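_Per-residue structure_
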Amino acid sequence: MFPLQKIVKILSYIKNPTYLYQVFGQLSSQLLGFLLGMFLVRIAGVEVSGGYNSLLAIMNMTIGMVYSGILTNYLRNAIVKDYFLAFIAFITATLALFLLLLPVFLLLGYDITNLIYIYIITLFINFIQISIYSLRLRKLDNKVFWPSVLPVGLLIIALFAFKPTSLTQFLYLALLSWGVSLFFIWNDLRHITIGKITISEIWNYIKASKVLMFTTVMTLLYGNLDTILIKYLMGDTLVGYYKIAMSLTMFVMPVIGIFSFIYLSEIKNYITDNDYQHLLQKRKQQLFLILFITVLFSLFCLCFNKYIIPFLYKVSSDRAVWASVILSFSVMFNGLSMVNSYTLVGMGKEHKILKITFIAGGVNVVGNLLLIPYIDILGAALASVLTQIFIFVYNSYVVRKELESV
């Protein structure tokens, strides 16, 4: 049944219109994001691209935990009328944290204009996410396409039309393009019944999201620390090259994500029926499927990235090529770890994932601090691989113990 019949079976699951709308919207958004990164390098240069990504990284490492916590809380509660409450809590908490951290950002040397721009841009980006979540809860998946693609599409058009030559110019264009999120928020509020909101309710909603915020801290840290360290040790140009290497992983990660999502939907029945023998078989089959996909991807990167990067980005960098090859192995172990993580989620053992995430965050921090000063972006890529290997090994051990205990 592997791999052709397996693929046929998977396609039978995602033919459901709900899946198709969500998958198509997500893949379209990721493809446009990839094109944006490529065109930004070609038009504005590697340094502007690096500066933009380092600003995004600093926002994700700090304010990102608030975004993630409140958004996840809204989706988890599945209460449509809480939309405006979550929206206001979103703005209140992020603004307070941004103002609190602003002196630190300025002390680190960031330009205040760029900081204000990137804060509002990330706010708009997450406005789009809460709008998409609202559509999901209201069973309007057929409408997720435009919120997913319009802001990035407008930014790509603006990039070609105005050809920015500095980071501030690009951020201004991004601010205007992502501002279209206000239209989607306005449209949502027209169709959702909202009640009177008090300061107490806002505070309680923020507090109810704090555990979810806490669980994302280490993930955000080791997902963005490498970018920040490269910026301060090597400069924005090398950040740009590193992001080029990372961007090529988008060709395989959406596929892994879809397969993993379907795997989770399949194993729930086995767990409900206490059929752990078939669960073990399904997990093994999924591991081999992900390994098959990612080995092909790594071989592809090894053979062709040295041609793809100059062709797409109009830049030549052996370090970017080799970093992309190393990162392909990070994708491999990340995909394999997702199988274990979804197995634990299906078994109701999410707290085990939190523990692993925190330990892995420490491994990644140490790896980046030791390797980046000596081999720059290759060190960051290698630290990512080592972190994902650790997560996979640890995850596998935990899953095996949990399955042996049932």
Observations:
- The mean pLDDT is 85.
